[in-house]
Amino acid sequence: MNLSNFIKERLSFESYAFNWDELLIAKANKSETSIQSQLSYAIQKGDVIPLRHHFYLIIPPRYSKFGKLPIELYVNSLFKYLERNYYVGLYSAAKFYGAGHQQIQKEYVLHDKAPLLSISKHAINLDFFTVSNWPTKNVLSKKGDAGMFKISSPCLTAVDLIYHQTKIGGLNRMLSVLEELAEEIKLADAKELLSWYRQKSVLQRFGYLLNEFDPESEIANLIYEHLKIEKFYPVLLSPRSNEKPGSVENRWKVDVNIKMESDL
């Protein structure tokens, strides 16, 4: 079997990725030198992209003009290969819920274990965030063209955006995304998150923003009742290392230290 037949066979099963070991098994009658030579030629033509060491993406004709694949077509294969838990999150998850009218230039994946280096190859830009307290809830399985993949629920997506705001462009960049996401969050999703989520400062900021979007927000009231049980202290809406919260005039104890400008 030559490499083009191997690729055709993978694509016939809606499989858009492979690793070196899978290739060796499929082409057991060929020498490694011959396999490497065919692989190098496919990479040169743009039919295959080496994403990580010994892990490759197949770029079929319908995606060749973009030079990349939608993340849901390969993320599950990549993290199975890396032997880690993962979920598609932040702006990448938001777009699946119809939030985020701007075209995102990067894809975001959250994972457990040691940090992973970002990937920037051809038109592919992947950013990875390590999660120390791995969630057992609010991570959903969604069906894509290449099978199931993991994605944060709307509520987890929202709190992750707020938590990582300083690393992904700041709060104003995400205000319209959060406002659209808020419409997708169901009470059950929020209740599930509150059963395990421990970042009180993030919940305060989230509750404050939900009330800004909708003063009658049921989700905001749920979060407030949850926070009220324990003490919570003043926080900055946008965290800054050289700034401490000043006087606050809202129930969330959030010091609004930026001018909020949504582009909705």
UniProtKB/TrEMBL annotation:
InterPro entries: AbiEi_C. It comes from the Bacteria. Pfam families: AbiEi_1. Residues 69-211 form the AbiEi antitoxin C-terminal domain. This is AbiEi antitoxin C-terminal domain-containing protein. It comes from Aequorivita sublithincola (strain DSM 14238 / LMG 21431 / ACAM 643 / 9-3). The lineage of its organism: Bacteria, Pseudomonadati, Bacteroidota, Flavobacteriia, Flavobacteriales.
